[in-house]
Write a structure and sequence with these properties.
With 234 residues, the chain is α/β, with parallel strands linked by helices. The chain has a single domain, classed as Carbamate kinase, CATH 3.40.1160.10. 37% of the residues lie in helices and 19% in strands. It contains eight helices and eleven strands. The strands form two sheets. A nine-stranded mixed sheet has the order 4-3-5-2-1-6-10-11-9, sandwiched between helices. It has a two-stranded antiparallel ribbon with strand order 7-8. It is globular, with a radius of gyration of 17 Å. The structure holds uridine-5'-diphosphate (UDP).
Length: 234
């Protein structure tokens, strides 16, 4: 059987919120869904991880215990995945939401075998709840799941259209990289994904691609391997 392209798309929580920056913006999520459907219909196996920043981050509060704050963050990512999964379904896609901990009947407990089965049935699979552990990030969750699922690449949809040598919003002369190694990303502290996730990608040779979420059909293009942003080699 011909091996299908398998990708893991990361969306930040804020990317779901549109202009509002918090909660959900239905039109924004429908646009993401439209693009993912193009790829899924063309046979790309799609895994999705979503952050939780539109609701809560572990570092949102100094008043409460970090472990509890992180648990709220992980649950925020579960809410996001359930919402986006339902919007995807409303556009005719079949989906499954997996979590690394039990959320009753709302999600399925993650297992690689089950997730692979879903992908082979043409479902879009969501990995909610990060790694399931506090003191980790959604970035680490992405790297872990991408490696475990033997994805071809991680796709990072960002507000900026690639990786720059300095912040393009601050420095108009900032230079965009077409290609860069993960080693260089770490050495230059380019903050593409956090350090734990970067090391995991480096050790397991998991490449990434960073592109601008707001460019026309950027997600659909990236899923098919047409990257206009930056490719991070590993
Ligand atoms: N989180 C966690 N463990 C994980 C993944 C996420 O504790 O494996 C928590 C953490 O508190 C994080 C929040 O979930 O801040 C939301 O994730 P998001 O990626 O939006 O936050 P960020 O990575 O920007 O902190």
């Amino acid at each position: 059987m011909e091996k299908k392209r398998r990708v893991l798309l990361k969306l930040s929580g804020e990317a779901l919120a549109g202009e509002k920056k918090t909660g959900f913006d239905e039109e924004t999520v429908k646009e993401v869904a439209r693009q993912v459907k193009i790829s899924a219909d063309s046979g790309v196996q799609v895994c999705i991880v979503i952050g939780g920043g539109n609701f809560w981050r572990g570092r949102s509060s100094n008043a409460i215990d970090r472990t509890k704050a992180d648990q709220i963050g992980m649950l925020a990512t579960v809410m996001n995945c359930i919402y986006v999964s339902e919007i995807f379904r409303s556009l005719g896609m079949d989906t499954e939401v997996f979590t690394p901990f039990a959320v009753g009947a709302m999600t399925k407990l993650f297992s690689k075998d089950e997730a692979v089965k879903c992908l082979e049935q043409g479902k879009v699979v969501f990995f909610a709840g990060g790694t399931g552990h506090p003191y980790f990030s959604t970035d680490t969750g992405i790297a872990l799941r991408a490696v475990e699922m033997e994805a071809d690449t991680i796709l990072l949809a960002k507000a900026v259209d690639g990786i720059y040598d300095s912040d393009p919003k601050v420095n108009p002369k900032a230079r965009k990289f077409d290609r860069i190694s993960i080693q260089e990303v770490v050495e230059k502290q380019l903050a593409v994904i956090d350090l734990t996730a970067s090391i995991l990608c480096m050790e397991n040779h998991m490449p990434l691609a960073v592109f601008g979420l707001n460019e026309q059909d950027a997600i659909a293009h990236a899923m098919n391997g047409e990257i206009t942003g930056t490719i991070v080699t590993a």
